[in-house]
Structure formats: C-alpha cells, structure tokens
Specification:
Elements lengths: L6 E4 L18 E7 L74 H9 L3 E7 L4 E8 L5 E4 L1 H4 L8 E5 L5 E10 L4 E6 L21 E6 L7 E16 L7 E8 L11 E3 L5 E11 L16 E5 H14 L4 E3 L2 E7 L7 E9 L4 H4 L7 E5 L2 E2 L3 H9 L6 E8 L2 E8 L1 E3 L1
Length: 419
C-alpha cells in the first residue's frame, strides 16, 4: 500500500518554533504532517528509500511509494506528537448547549455564522502519557459526552494512550476516557466523565462537498482554543497517506482545504457555510526538512486535509458500539508503477503480492498486474488504490481496471473486511 508520508500537524506547538525563513526559490514540500496532537517521540522504524530530489527548486509533495508489507485496505496509523503544555488535573460540570448568537448582523459573514453555530461543539483534548504531553482538538458527537478526535491525538509512542482531559468551548475542564480507536482511519472516540448536556455538532453529507465551497476550520492550533480560520475546499477525494513507518500508516480519501490548519487543529472540525461538519482535520503539508531555509516542522502553507464526515461518522458509530471499526480489504501489496521516461510519474498501482483467501485472490489478481482504475476513478499510485478501496464499504463489489502483459482488462472484486 503506497503511503504518502505526512506528519502529524497535530496537537500542539513546538516551544522552540520559529517563523519559517523565506526561501529565495520554491522549496520541496514534505509529507503532510499530522496537525494533531503534539509532543511524543516519533516512531524509530526505518523509512522506505525515497528517490533523490530533482534539482530546479520546483515544488512537489513528498508522496513516497508504498510502505512495504501493508495490505491494500488494511494497515494501521499512529501519531507523532509534540510537547505543548501539561494540563491541570480536574473535572467539571456539564455545559449547557449554546445558541447561535451574532452580535453585529450588519457585519456578519458566512464564516461568522458558521463559527457561531459550530464552535460550541468543538473542544480541546489534552493527553499526558507520562513520557510527553500535548493537546489537540475534538468534536462533540452526543450530548452525553462522546467526542470524536484523531487517533494520533490520543495515541502515544507505540500506540498506547495516557490520561485524557477535555476542555469544552465554555472553558469547563473534564476528565475523559478513550472508548476506542481506529489507526487505519486515524480516528478515535473519547467520552467525557459526567457530561449530560453538551452541544452536539451537526454533520453534513461530505459526498455533496464541492471544490470552491466555503470551509471553516475550528480547533486549538498551537494550543489556542476556540480558534477559527476560513478558506475554501481545494479538492475532494484527495488520496493522502500519513505516518512515517509501516506501523503508523494511514491512507484515505481526504478533503483538501486552504483554511489555515496548524499543529493542534487535529481532530477539530472542518465545517461548511452552514456550520455543519464536513470533515475532521487530520494533516497538513509542510516544507521539507533537510533543505536550505526549511524547518523540521512548519505551520500552515495552505494545504490541509480532513477526513470526510461520512467516513468519520461511520467509524465513530462503530467505535461507540463495539470499541473498534472495520474497513474494506482488497488483499494485495502494491507499489507505484512508474512511467518509463520519468520515474516520478505514476502510471498505476503494481501488485507485488496477493494474499491467499482474500478478495484479490478470489478475483484472480496476480503479481505484476497494474491497477489503473477503481470503477470510473483513475489510479496512478498505490496510495490512490489504497484510498479508493478504503472509501468503499466492506462487502462492496467494485470494478478494477488492470493492465496485464500489455493488455487492459476489467475484473469485478467483492471486497473483504478487516479491522
């Protein structure tokens, strides 16, 4: 499964942060970073080799090839977190729902109304694992205290979780417990202790989102709770992969936005002009490290990613009901097939191995097949194949277009299920 290697922009600020220097020429773009949570040591497993960067100062996203060994549709995700601040211990009483109030209607904008409706349902999530602490964001799912956030916000090094606290928009601080996580979609649900009247967010149909729509991001970037930024939807069905190793790999179809998203926004809401949640903010692109003028982690550069609300709601409901979630599984390992003239141009997802007993094996896929489309959706990289499969429900039947020995053919595959 090809994984674009994005970093968690996640949960909090680096105390030693400095404004990025202004390069004289455009710099390469690093893998998006998890905006999520903040401060724990990153995984130490070696990264797959990357192609040497091309000279000329051109911009490009660091979308590396498949992390070896992960099944398409399977795999796991975790998080890189950065130290922010240690929250004080304590809990609080439940907060009553807040009505939408616009103080100056004559100067109100679409963002004003969206923020007024959605901001009361966005919370700040604090996690202390003993080896590090940080904060991210979350979205209230139910009045009795279920909150949706990112897995990398609550997961420490090695995938464990620590003590969790949640501060609601009215400033009340609660203790909370992790209900369950899904690293593959980078989602988690926590439940606030003692809450019974929280303002639950309203979710929109993310399949209806269009490029150019208004987008408003709400969360706690750099630890600054109740922060609102706005922009537009830059792209939909953007196949992105996050995580730096095989064990923390997450690939999904994301909503891309230019609304400012920074460390600490992870798990917060991306809402439309009506103030309804269309996505859960999860990752940002950052300037690559190791190049002149670059920082190891920089802030917003106008390329942020959110998990679509339809996916987030489905996964959250499964976690609440069972403690975990399922996703569609094809059952192959794949790498990006490169163009003969330019190795940086992908021409499909080349099957490296097929796992016996899986949907791919049942459909007759073979090593060496190159998948070029899922349904009417073109596939040029292994990450696009992974994201396209994960966007399907387990048990769904999809048509794959494959290239085998120079011939093109189609094959119907009934997807399996994995957790």
């Amino acid at each position: 499964m090809s994984e674009h290697q994005h970093q968690y922009p996640g949960a909090g600020q680096q105390f030693a942060w400095q404004p990025p220097q202004q390069p004289t020429t455009p710099q390469p773009i690093a893998p998006p970073t998890y905006p999520g949570y903040g401060g724990l040591p990153s995984p130490t497993a070696p990264l797959p080799e990357r192609p040497e960067p091309r000279r000329g100062g051109r911009l490009r996203i660091g979308l590396a090839g498949l992390v070896a060994g992960a099944l398409i549709g399977g795999g796991a995700g975790a998080g890189v977190v950065a130290l922010v601040e240690e929250p004080a211990a304590g809990s609080g009483t439940s907060a009553s729902a807040q009505s939408v109030t616009i103080e100056n209607p004559e100067r109100a904008t679409t963002a004003t109304a969206a923020a007024a409706k959605a901001a009361p349902s966005v919370v700040t999530v604090y996690v202390n694992t003993g080896t590090g602490a940080g904060s991210g964001s979350g979205v209230v799912l139910t009045a009795d205290g279920y909150v949706l956030t990112n897995n990398h916000v609550v997961a420490g090094d090695g995938g464990g979780t620590g003590s969790v606290q949640v501060r609601t928009a009215d400033g009340t601080l609660y203790d909370a417990q992790v209900v369950g996580t899904d690293p593959g979609f980078d989602l988690a649900v926590v439940r606030i202790d003692g809450a019974d009247d929280l303002p639950a967010a309203t979710f929109a149909d993310s399949d209806s989102v269009q490029v150019g729509d208004i987008a408003v991001a709400i969360g706690a970037p750099l630890g600054l709770s109740n922060t609102v930024t706005d922009g537009i939807i830059s792209a939909t069905d953007r196949a992105v992969a996050t995580g730096s190793t095989r064990d923390d790999a997450t690939a999904l179809d994301a909503i891309q936005t230019d609304a400012a998203i920074n460390p600490g926004n992870s798990g917060g809401a991306l809402v439309d002009g009506a103030g309804e949640v269309i996505g859960i903010n999860t990752a940002i692109a950052t300037v690559a490290s190791g190049v002149p003028g670059a920082q190891s982690q920089s802030g917003n550069i106008g390329v942020g990613f959110a998990i679509p609300s339809n996916t987030a709601q489905r996964v959250a409901q499964q976690i609440i009901e069972t403690g975990s979630a399922t996703r569609a599984l094809l059952g192959v390992e794949a790498t990006t097939a490169a163009d003969d003239q330019n190795r940086e141009v992908g021409t499909g997802a080349e099957v490296a191995t097929v796992t016996s007993g899986t949907a791919a094996a049942d459909a007759g896929l073979q090593a060496g097949d190159v998948v070029t489309a899922v349904g009417d959706r073109p596939v040029t990289t292994s990450t696009e194949l992974t994201a396209a499969i994960r966007s399907q429900a387990p048990g769904a039947t999809v048509e794959l277009t494959i290239r085998r020995a120079g011939d093109e053919r189609t094959v119907d595959v009934t997807l399996g299920e994995t957790s």
